[in-house]
Amino acid sequence: MDTGEFRKRAHEIADWMADYLEGIGERPVRSPSAPGEIAAALPAGAPVHGEPFDAIMADLDRIVMPGMTHWQHPRFFAYFPANATPPSMLAEMITATLGAQCMLWQTSPAATELETRLLEWLRGMIGLPGGFAGVIQDSASSAVLCAILTARERALGWKGNEDGLAGGPELAAYASDETHSSVEKAARIAGIGTRGLRRVALDGDRRMDAAALDAAIARDMAGNVRPVIVIATLGSTGVGAVDDLASIAAVCRRHGVYLHVDAAWAGSALILPEYRAMIEGIESVDSLCFNPHKWLGVQFDCSAHFVRDPDSLVRTLSILPAYLQGRETGSVIDYRDWGIPLGRRFRALKLWFVLRYYGVSGLQEMLRNHIAWTRELASQIDGNGEFELTSGPNLALLSFRWRPAGRAEEELDELNQRLLDAINDDGRIYLTSNRIDGRLVIRVSVGAHATRRGDVLDAFRVIREIAARV
């Protein structure tokens, strides 16, 4: 493809993108495709000869688009948002064009230095103390793995990477049942294992119980099990629970245990001064991550990972062969030493575009709207006799349960699952489920950039309409 055709096709794709965004609200939120349907429409092997670009675009619309769930849809209320604002999309086009592999300072100095400065911006925006340094990871899953590996090495006196874990002490990590599933995966990868992951009891607000944590660590130490790390949560996936950092940090200080905070979703709300109380005790935390790609409008993937001691992170993850060394090595930041993969995308560019285009005040307005609209939806649910609010509203997250009159408690799980399936098959809104104390509930997360107040308030009308049919 020469630059003339590239220019023509790029303009066509830009028009396609704009048309998609303008019409996204008319599409079903969740893909209606059946398993195997997309694969059946694709040839069994790659084409021998090149095909016209028009044919490729036609098949994009015919084959691919019916199989897409539309995460930017204004009535996407499932999971957590994965926002892609227009400025972020445009930045990703530039990133793709540059095609830079930003593993070292010298492989693109602008990528490294922009990332450093933007993490300083974010640190100030969310109220972290100046002692934290930041890096952009692909996701909170990678950030928590980096945290566990660093904590493991610190607990083992930096012997784990050199000697391996065989023959070493039994290790333990601590989290609650509200902690994200990525923590268990990271514990497995880091050699702690599922058995070594201690599930700390919850208090009445579904927060990690600091007294139970203290007892669990003391019990392990008495049994010659070495505590490695505690993972606290700000805004749990299930109900939006916010752990008491100050109490947990006091326990970690007393026992000398590393403390990581997973604020993947709710961390964005820290740009609102009225929610800064969530990080009371942050001065004693070792690391924290949150995902601008969830609620701040930055294209996936972009996870901000802040560490108090970057030297420990680098010492854990750095391997320096001759072919990666240059004259600047040791005098500049090489972010390949701050994460799992060697290769790195130029993620800072889209963050720069979003922060400059909307400004802090524009992003604050969006988050405040989402939180206010979620409260209005909660009032609607709470005021209806056939439904009960089961959690929240916590920031922009709530859950509810359908309880029609005359139904026995043991019937309600099956009934709510039928309602959820019918809602998602209908296509106008998209919701997901959770379990609270063993009971199935329906979860609503408000946060898509395109969402407006009418979309949120209309959701309950759709829910009631479908419930009447179910």
CATH-level-2 architecture of the largest domain: 3-Layer(aba) Sandwich
Principal-axes geometry comes out as globular
Oligomeric state of the chains?
Answer: single chain
Mean of residue pLDDT values: 94
Amino-to-carboxy terminus distance: 53 Å
Kindly describe this structure:
There is one protein chain. With 470 residues, this protein is α/β, with parallel strands linked by helices. The chain folds into 3 domains: 70 residues, dopa decarboxylase, N-terminal domain (Up-down Bundle); 246 residues, 3-Layer(aba) Sandwich (Aspartate Aminotransferase, domain 2), CATH 3.40.640.10; 109 residues, Aspartate Aminotransferase, domain 1 (Alpha-Beta Complex), CATH 3.90.1150.170. It has 15 helices and 11 strands. Helix 10 links the parallel strand 4 and strand 5. Helix 4 runs antiparallel to helix 13 and helix 6 packs across helix 12.
